């Protein structure tokens, strides 16, 4: 009887949880846009006079081009090469984004979402 239960469990795992299963794709509108709106777009959005560092994150082409420093903010498929991720994860208080004075850091969950989105 125990062998039958074990065999059934192994079969269920093999059928319903395929190897290589990955997380669902990130939904830009539902998951990424709110993070950017909360943490980034007040300084890196569409308003030319308020934009910092010449970086615009509300347009894909502009984000991929980057700002005055750091190169491409977003390198599709390569979060480790994306300046956005570097700026969000640095320990240098002069480089980290959002700046500490904003008192609105990106959470670990939000960072993971951004990494996954860039990877996709």
Percent in strands: under 5%
Structural class: mainly alpha
What is the string of helix and strand elements? HHHHHH
Radius of gyration (Å):
20 Å
Instruction: List how many beta strands DSSP finds.
Output: 0
The first-to-last residue Cα distance is 45 Å
Choose one word for the global shape: globular
- What is the helical fraction, as a range of percent? 40-55%
Mean pLDDT: 87
Query: Number of helical segments?
Result: 6
Main sheet: strands, sense, barrel? none
Q: Can you tell me the residue ranges where pLDDT is under 50 for at least 5 consecutive residues? A: 6-12
Description:
The chain has helices spanning 2-16, 28-39, 41-44, 60-65, 83-89, 108-119. The chain is mostly helical and 120 residues long. Helix 2 (28-39) crosses helix 6.
TL;DR of this structure?
This protein is mainly alpha-helical. The protein is built from six helices and no strands.
Question: What keywords describe this structure?
Answer:
120 residues, mainly alpha, 47% helix
Topology, element by element:
Layout lengths: L1 H15 L11 H12 L1 H4 L15 H6 L17 H7 L18 H12 L1
């Amino acid at each position: 009887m125990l062998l039958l239960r074990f065999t059934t469990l192994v079969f269920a795992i093999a059928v319903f949880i395929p190897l290589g299963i990955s997380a669902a794709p990130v939904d830009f509108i539902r998951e990424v846009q709110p993070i950017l709106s909360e943490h980034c777009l007040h300084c890196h959005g569409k308003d030319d006079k308020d934009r910092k560092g010449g970086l615009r994150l509300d347009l894909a082409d502009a984000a991929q081009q980057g700002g005055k420093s750091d190169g491409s903010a977003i390198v599709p498929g390569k979060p480790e090469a994306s300046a956005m991720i570097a700026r969000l994860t640095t320990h240098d208080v002069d480089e980290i984004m959002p700046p500490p004075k904003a008192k609105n850091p990106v959470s670990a969950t939000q960072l993971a979402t951004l990494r996954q989105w860039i990877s996709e």
